[in-house]
Amino acid sequence: MTSGSPLEPGPGSILDRLAERQLLVVTGKGGVGKTTLTSVLGRLLAERGRQVLLLEVDPRESLHQALGTEPSGGARVQAGPRLWIQNLKPEVVIEGLVGEKVPIAFLARRIVDSDAFHQFVAGAPGLKETALLGYAFRVLESGSRPKVDLVLVDAPATGHGAAMLAAPGLLAQAAKGGQLGEMASELAAFLADATRCGVVLAALAEEMPVQETLELLELLRSRLGIRADLVVANGLYPKLAPGTAAGAGAELLRARRRLNEAELARLAAAWDGPLVELPLLALERGPALVEALAEAFKGAEP
Amino acid sequence: MSAGLLAGRLTVVVGAGGVGKTTLAAALALGSAGAGGRTLVMTFDPSLRLKDTLGVGEAAKDEPSPVAIEGPGSLDAALLDAGHTFDRLIRTYAPDAASARRIFANRFYRDLAGNLAGILEYMAMERLFEMRAGGRYEHIILDTPPTRQAMDFLQAPERMMSMVNNKAIKFAMDPFWDGKGGLNLGFRLAAMGAMELSDRLVGRRFLLDVVEFIRAFAPLFEGFHDRAGEVRNLLRADETRFLLVAGPGPDRVPDAMFFLRKLKETGHHLGPILVNQIHPDPGPKPRLDPGLALLRFMADRDRRGLALLRSLFPEEQEIIPVALEPVPPGDLRTLGQLFDRVSKTKSI
After folding, report:
1. Model confidence over B273-294: pLDDT tens digits?
2. C-alpha distance from A95 to closest chain B C-alpha (Å)
3. Quick check: B111 contacting A, CB < 8 Å?
């Protein structure tokens, strides 16, 4: 898509750099804390004065739990100062798009109601992913109320996350000549612009999640020319205080901490970009956890 | 040992991403082979985790490769790869080499078919069917791709069948295309009510590619359709057990419930539920180190999760907690130990 030239690690913190982006896709393997990380980054970037929208694509909502709001149900819900969440259903976005491109209401209705349309939406590969990223793009480009200048996408798990970023380019090629192809092509160019779009990877410091993170970093680089902005290692076990009594519990914690450190070292050996470590905390999923992790993030910046 | 752990001839291991499905599937396979069965474990995962653990290479994409184990049984491991299996299937079912070439050359197939919704899940099922039909194994264990929506997985055969039946294919198969179809596309689209869709949104070239793809595929459809039906029946057969692996803690219970509800609704047979990575309680200590206090918190959380799951099921449903160990299993010996541990744990 574009040259894979890494961004110069300029002065300033990683948060400063993330705050310059317009779109950030947060991705990673299942169960590694993507949704919590999306919430943490959303809070931190809103704190820096950006107007931030968090988009969730999982039909089972969880962003609202992390931030302590009502579920979105498709609508934009305020989750803090300058911070909103929204759960998107691809089908609804695509129907909205048809309505926009076909301004004559009865024609749009006819398309949306036709069997051909439903089969197309269900079957066309990459269409849903493109529609979701396209939604973010349009929110940024054409303005919205409330104003949004940074969108974070809580992307599906690893394999799908890369497929999501690749989808607009593939669709642009396949559907060249139609409006859909034009939109996909415009979107692909936007995604390839490293000054505007970035990718954040969530991981656990365990063998397989680290392996998959390294594979995803390579896939992004080789297939899409994207260098990730940041890798975050979630849920690190604590170091035990010296002199802690022996016992099965202490042994478990020590072994898990050693495993975390070995995997962090492996990650750091293969990834020369920013890496932030976040601790496992004794807090339930919810606003208090997000708050504590946001503080930890500020303290842990490389 | 838990009665259900190795029951049935096919075990499909399901669960959300990151809960340890692959490791547990490998451990079960070792246990089954250790009990004397000719066993096959199939894993479907883009990162090919089992490859690392079981020491199987790229060759295992085509043919199951033997895993060096001691004991009475035998263990083979196979890797599933959607693109690879799909290509193979086309080679197998295409009536001649020219038809196969025509599919491989189609732009739509090359760019996009690998990403087609549900195809990964379906291909895993196809391969399972193929292996079952081969009759070489007494027990087959299938690790599945992490699918948040259980429906995607269970409905893959149905979806494949309806895809093959649907109007788009009848449309593409119309002998009309043998003549000047491309030139008269507008006319056909209008008749189908899809004129606006094509003109305003998709572009005709794309539609023509899709039509061409479907036509190239047509000779295979009947075979696909029949197989999808057989795969569906196999998944619902009594010999097939779905073993659910769940993450610990109350947060993961809705995930597990969703899988279980869908399995029941669609008439599949449930095996035991394994709740993985349960933190052990560090025991009472007058003044806890902050680290041990965290472990206590996690242990409480995991216990609440187990209790919640238990309260939602009838007593006969086996729910087996699997404790988090200091070091995750990384070789055959430790995988074998994991199986021993799981098989000795009583249902709660």
Report:
1. 999 999 999 887 656 688 889 9
2. 12
3. yes
